[in-house]
């Protein structure tokens, strides 16, 4: 009997794969699964630093199929606002704010697509 993997396990596997890809491109992990305190806040899957010093907030989306536009289309304006909210909360902890950008890594089946500067704050 084969066990079905949970949505969380699939999401964690997609994040692992995205992180490996980004690290292979020279980015360094700052924090994983950053969450704001309280209800209704936001979460950031990966926070990484680009070799040029840019702090990159990465949303990882995984979809098995292309229905409804696939992984990239699942980043709604509401989801973007929550990511930006969490990023601002994270930046409050820093003494100096570096250049920042918001990337998306879309994992669809065996394909991985990295969209740099996918949206703005």
UniProtKB/TrEMBL annotation:
Listed InterPro entries = Restrct_endonuc-II-like, tRNA_endonuc-like_dom_sf, UPF0102_YraN-like
User: Which domain of life does the protein's organism represent?
Assistant: Bacteria
Task: Give GO MF terms, alphabetically.
Answer: nucleic acid binding
Please list which residues make up the signal peptide.
none
Q: Which Gene3D superfamilies match?
A: 3.40.1350.10
UniProt cross-references to PANTHER family, sorted A to Z: UPF0102 PROTEIN YRAN
**So what family is this one in?**
Belongs to the UPF0102 family.
Please give the name of this protein: UPF0102 protein B9Z44_08160
Q: Lineage of this protein's species? A: Bacteria, Pseudomonadati, Pseudomonadota, Betaproteobacteria, Burkholderiales
């Amino acid at each position: 009997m084969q066990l079905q993997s949970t949505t969380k396990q699939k999401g964690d596997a997609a994040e692992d794969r995205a992180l490996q890809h980004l690290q292979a491109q020279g980015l360094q992990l700052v924090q994983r699964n950053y969450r704001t305190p309280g209800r209704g806040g936001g979460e950031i899957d990966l926070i990484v630093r680009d070799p040029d010093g840019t702090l990159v907030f990465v949303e990882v989306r995984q979809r098995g199929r292309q229905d409804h536009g696939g992984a990239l289309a699942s980043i709604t304006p509401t989801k973007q606002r929550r990511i930006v909210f969490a990023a601002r909360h994270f930046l409050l902890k820093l003494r100096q704010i570096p250049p920042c950008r918001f990337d998306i890594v879309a994992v669809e089946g065996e394909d991985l697509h990295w969209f740099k500067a996918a949206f703005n704050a």
